[in-house]
Amino acid sequence: LSKNTSPFVTPTVYRSVSGVLVTNYVRGTMLSSMIESYVNEDHELESRVHSLLGTIMTDLSEFHLKSRSKGDLERPIGRVHGDFDPWQILVADSSYTVIDWEDSIESAEQYSDVLSFIFMTAIIGSQSRKLSDRVTSVLNPEPRVSSLLRHALETYTESDNSTAKDLLNYT
């Protein structure tokens, strides 16, 4: 993954052995932990989590646009992370690092990264519920989770010049 196609801070890759990347140690807190604390009423994190999601979605859109090889807004094709979710993002101070790039795909439908991120964020918001209620809560999230998801989706689509409808049609 070259720096000129990615707005993300990524780990330095020292070598690849049988598909496993050997990288430098990356210090930080998983974004998933921050979102979970926020959902559990940690109001001090509210502006930081919203700001981080806005930055991450803007950067993801920029990454997709720079690496787009073909397709249109309905089905854009280009490089994707392949496993883009809050567990793959480490936050330290005012920056973040996207890790786990070994499953990155050079030519795939790019909306899969956005939808993966949104779906997995919804799952974080439902973790405190019993298993039988989780699917319902992912499809119909609580207001605090819904607010995060709406913010992430709107930020991405605004940066990508697409619409939420384009993403919904993708599914």
List the helices and strands and how they pair.
Blueprint lengths: L12 E5 L2 E4 L5 E2 H9 L6 H22 E3 L6 E4 L8 E4 L2 E4 L6 E5 L1 H15 L5 H9 L3 H18 L3 H7 L1
Antiparallel strand pairs: 1-2, 3-6, 4-5, 5-8, 6-7
Labels describing this entry:
3-stranded antiparallel β-sheet, single chain, 171 residues, alpha+beta
Anisotropy-based shape: globular
* DSSP, total strands: 8
How large is the radius of gyration? 16 Å
Kindly name the structural category. Answer: alpha+beta
| Count, helices | 6
Describe the structure.
The protein has about 170 residues and is of the alpha+beta class. It contains six helices and eight strands, in the order βββααβββββαααα. The chain has helices at about 30-40, 45-65, 110-125, 130-140, 145-160, 165-170; strands at about 15, 20-25, 30, 70, 75-80, 90, 95-100, 105-110. It has a three-stranded antiparallel beta sheet. Helix 2 (about 45-65) packs parallel to helix 5 (about 145-160), helix 3 crosses helix 4 and helix 3 (about 110-125) packs antiparallel against helix 5. The chain is globular. The two termini are about 25 Å apart.
